[in-house]
Design goal:
Elements (H helix, E strand, L loop, with lengths): L24 H6 L2 H45 L13 E5 L16 H11 L4 E3 L26 E3 L2 H17 L15 H22 L6 E4 L7 E4 L3 E5 L1 H10 L16 H5 L2
Antiparallel strand pairs: 1-6, 2-3, 4-5
InterPro entries: UstYa-like
Family: Belongs to the ustYa family.
Keywords: Membrane, Transmembrane, Transmembrane helix
Length: 277
């Protein structure tokens, strides 16, 4: 008995042309142009569109997740703030230049320009805070707090703590120069001396607490310096990842609020100023 198997090409009946081969020999050897054309026109464009769509989806997903990661981190490290819900939370990454004599518009002997630069940092308007979020700040009785005019949507009046901290830093700076510069137009310095001294001490304490609270653990390295007795010096040009302060200022300006008219003072420019009168 002959057990050898013989393989033969499968055949089928073609009504159109009588070609019985499933894959014609010409197509098997070098491909059929009509077949390739139909494949290209039928699948090429949808396939390219699908790939492009997937790339766009993954890029958008990456951007959203990256942004949400920063927002989640901010919410974990800070009490509630309406700013976290604004979609404006952004960070800047850079290496700052901070050697001992680094020029800055905020340092040096006071001038009208220096004073104006500091004022622009912290003197911003009041904002409205939703009553429903008071428990997030460990507050409860909304009747204790000044409310915004209904023209601004109601809610509790407030301001961001960073502006108070910058006010405090500015207050300390001005205190160190008050013997050589006229600060008679600054409300805080028109108070009795013991109040002025108490205000400065309050500001020092505020900044101490804030620095310890955030506890910047960015490494400061030592660089070689043969001119120093120790042979080295601290490199304060450190890498930073900081919230975009300009966007925080923009949000405060865009969401300003005022108290009801009967509580508005003629000369009060910001709630931060009001707090320290």
């Amino acid at each position: 008995m002959n057990n050898a198997w013989e393989y033969q090409q499968l055949r089928f009946s073609s009504d159109a042309e009588g070609d019985e081969s499933i894959v014609p020999e010409a197509l098997a050897e070098k491909g059929d142009g009509r077949f390739r054309s139909r494949l290209g026109s039928g699948w090429g464009f949808p396939l390219a569109l699908l790939v492009q769509s997937l790339i766009i989806v993954f890029l958008l997903l990456y951007i959203v997740l990256l942004g949400s990661e920063d927002a989640v981190c901010a919410e974990q490290l800070s009490p509630y703030s309406p700013y976290f819900e604004s979609g404006m939370l952004d960070h800047l990454v850079y290496t700052e230049q901070n050697h001992l004599m680094q020029p800055s518009p905020y340092r040096g002997q006071p001038t009208p320009e220096v004073e104006e630069a500091w004022i622009r940092l912290w003197r911003l308007p009041m904002i409205q805070f939703p009553e429903s979020k008071l428990p997030a700040l460990n507050k409860s009785d909304a009747t204790q707090y000044m409310h915004a005019s209904q023209d601004y949507g109601g809610g509790v009046l407030g301001f961001f703590h960073v502006f108070h901290e910058l006010h405090c830093l500015n207050m300390i700076r001005q205190y160190t120069y008050r013997q050589t510069y006229d600060y008679s137009n600054v409300t805080a310095f028109r108070a009795p001396e013991e109040i002025v001294r108490g205000h400065v001490d309050h500001c020092i304490e505020t900044l101490r607490k804030q620095l310890m609270c955030t506890s910047d653990v960015t490494p400061v390295l030592f660089v070689k310096d043969d001119s120093r007795p120790s042979g080295m010096k601290s490199d304060f040009n450190v890498k930073r990842k900081c919230r975009d302060f300009g966007k925080i200022q923009d949000w405060a300006l865009e969401n300003l609020a005022q108290p009801p008219e009967r509580h508005q003072a003629d000369q009060v420019e910001s709630l931060v100023e009001l707090v320290h009168i």
